[in-house]
Amino acid sequence: MLGIPWSRSRAILISAAVTAVGSLWALFFADFTESLLSFLSLLIIVFAPWSGVFLTDMLLRRCRYDAQALHAGPGGAYGYREGYHPAGMAALLTGVVFAGLTCDSELWTGPLVAPLGGADLTLLGSVVSALTYWALTARTPIRSAR
What we know:
It is flat, with a radius of gyration of 19 Å. It has helices spanning 8-28, 32-61, 67-70, 86-101, 124-137. Helices cover 58% and strands 0% of the residues. The chain is mostly helical. Helix 2 (32-61) runs antiparallel to helix 4 (86-101), helix 2 (32-61) packs parallel to helix 5 and helix 4 runs antiparallel to helix 5. It contains five helices and no strands.
């Protein structure tokens, strides 16, 4: 998927090994609860902007998707440019950058947290990505099923 020519079984084995090592480290060499909370606080940097793009797309399409076209691959209605929607990727990256700059967690503190008086605005990454996605797709027709 990322252009790495690995078989599915090899990718799964590598993923399982990394997960096992990380889990063992968190269990035996660190406070598990603290490690889990730190990890979850960093996930919001990606998932808040992703949810903004996803929910905005759902609203623009009025929840009408063609289920068969979703699985048609790059040649299908949702194939866009080799499987990537440029507006969606731009909106996601904009939201991730904003969330990263305004995140305040134990593992990462963004450079804009101090000027904002210690405010953690990570969740606003969803709003930034939603508005960006809407602005980039407002003038293009939205493909929908039905």
